[in-house]
Amino acid sequence: MKIRAQIGMVLNLDKCIGCHTCSVTCKNVWTSREGVEYAWFNNVETKPGIGYPKQWENQDKWNGGWKRNADGSIEPRQRSRLKVLSRLFANPNLPQIDDYYEPFTFDYEHLQSAPESKAPPVARARSLLTGKRMQKIEWGPNWEEILGGEFEKRSKDKNFDDVQKDIYGQFENTFMMYLPRLCEHCLNPACVASCPSGSIYKREEDGIVLIDQDKCRGWRMCVSGCPYKKIYYNWKSGKAEKCIFCYPRIESGQPTVCSETCVGRIRYLGVLLYDADEIEKAASVEHETDLYQAQLDVFLDPHDPRVIAQARADSIPDAWLEAAKKSPVYKMAMEWKVALPLHPEYRTLPMVWYVPPLSPITTAAREGHISANGEIPDVTQLRIPVKYLANLLTAGDEAPLIRALERMLAMRTYQRGKHVDGCENPAVLEQVGLSRDEVEDMYCVMALASYEDRFMVPGTHREYAENLYDLKGSCGFSFGNRCSDGVGETSLFGGKKRRTIPIRGAGMKRADMNSDAHHVAARVLAALLNYPGAELRAALPDLRVALQSSERALSDESREAVVALIDTLQDPDALEAEARYVDTFDRGRRTSLHLFEHVHGDSRERGPALIDLQQTYAQQGMFLTADELPDYLPVVLEFAAMQPQHTAREFLAEMAHLLQSIHAALVCQHSPYAAAVAATLDLAGEPVQPPDAAARAPAEPAIDDEWREPDAFGGCSPSGSHYAPDVQTIQFVRRDATSFAAPKEGLL
């Protein structure tokens, strides 16, 4: 069992008023720019209707989602990888712009600039794609709003399968409902499997599906592969884009924009725990009507002690486990079973679920038009056909849909009797299998819907997931998002990532303390020479204990000096310790921990040397992440800790002269870090040399000051100028080949 956590969403269609606030706010935040004018990450459709884009639910046309083979396996409906590659340049399953709509604006300026005339000026439509005037607007994202258009077109709705739709074309039998849609962030996303360049991925920490804009090559196979058609092609950038579930807000513990601004309070956010090992089995069940129950079986009970223990072992923090216990999404989907997935027959295991809407029934029931089923009306006779809703939410299986509708009716009947009639009716709860506590909880969550009940989003700590200090110093120039590739020392769950070779060993486990003394000493020194962030400071007590167990590796003098360094790093003023580290190692070149800077400086020879050293690591099974340089002394010590003692001693001895130079400079600066470098020389079997005259040279200028450009203008004003006050002529300073020339009088 491999437990993962995901932020899921439930939308209560029984309360949606179709105001489109969610669509407008999402559009303003994410897609109000050139290239995605036609894209709506969130849109609200009126059902019945063919939707946006046209007939998106008809997978016989678009071939989105997955299909089950005869042998029980599943594959994308677009067929095999070879089939996908053969259609890269001629994809027959790709929607055209007319399937969405041609985005447009209006000539508002004409209303003010038009000449005087008898008729008022008109703001005509103008295409946002071509810039030309449009004679007629043919379609839009909410073209079918409130049953807009003729029923003949709306009747092509795929959910009318097995429904006698002709009678619903008559005015007295018509019905409608709103369906807000966004990316489902599926457990088994077909878009991920369809992307030839591998640019789409599902985040481990919260389950959000994202597109790496650096890897995306604009093949648009993901657009065809997504059965919900919630991936869009940005014609300006040539990249695919989709709903990002407002992950910057999710990471800070805030709800998505569409949820925050929802007027009807229909959206709920919460944590769901699931077994990642059961995803393939659930998506591969034989009958489509079993997919709903199969997905329920994937979800785990956050109150189960065994689940909690395994979740902690899988690095899910306690804050997320507590949020899962209080999750409204878990309650509505698993406990009350009133929330259902959208089109589970696509086999993507969607994670945005819906509470089905109730039809107007009170007046009809009182007039005898609807028969009663026990204590509640018969839901099979409601205005919205049960089969239509079942085709939408349960792959045609009516039983779970009827149960959800009956429980919602039971809650209303019970609360009406309690608050209006003054007489509780427990029989209605027994009929649908609910207790008093459950129906009261349903009433608070679904009817009152306070902010705290609707959103249970635990915050994450990205500062623990990425080594931002190292990224700041090693990013360089970037033409994308290469500076932050998501590779960090810990997962966002707060635990250590499972890595074959831990490069940064600040958080040492006590199991490491019983290993070879030489290996332990090398790891301790590697940790102490790292940036003294919060993780390192928390590990200092363990490092002290580990150091005491390495008596055979270090001399008493070296060990005592390193213990003194640990005491110094335990300075309660964390900012002072961090500033001391920066001043010591980053403000000058003599004490740089990047060893090749002492050999090659910034010359072109440093690059090949780094590659050779990295290949040496790889041959021994040590692989660095993208933000690590192989000549960084803590990394060198980590590599030495992997080797047999004699091999590590020889390896460190090769760079003893560099260590001697760094140590001498640190001694002259009276830095406590000199103890760690001296202990490294002790591991190499090299005696520590006293500082020479070169090391005692005056302090070198800070790197920022060393590369500061001098003033190019002088004498314009005596205020703040280093020239004589009587010099007022503008002077252009010409620079010599080796130094900056002194300013000369007159114009050049």
TrEMBL record:
Cofactors needed by this protein, per the record, are:
[3Fe-4S] cluster; [4Fe-4S] cluster
Q: Where is the 4Fe-4S ferredoxin-type domain?
A: 7-35, 174-205, 207-236
Q: Which UniProt keywords apply?
A: 3Fe-4S, 4Fe-4S, Electron transport, Iron, Iron-sulfur, Metal-binding, Nitrate assimilation, Repeat, Transport
Protein's cellular compartments = Cell envelope
Coiled-coil residues are none
Q: Please cite one Gene Ontology biological process associated with this protein.
A: nitrate assimilation
Protein's UniProt keywords contain Transport:
yes
* Main location group: other
Q: Can you provide one Gene Ontology molecular function annotated for this UniProt record?
A: metal ion binding
What is one cellular component GO term in this UniProt entry?
A: cell envelope
The protein in question is named Nitrate reductase beta subunit/nitrate reductase molybdenum cofactor assembly chaperone
Supply the source organism for this entry: Paraburkholderia graminis
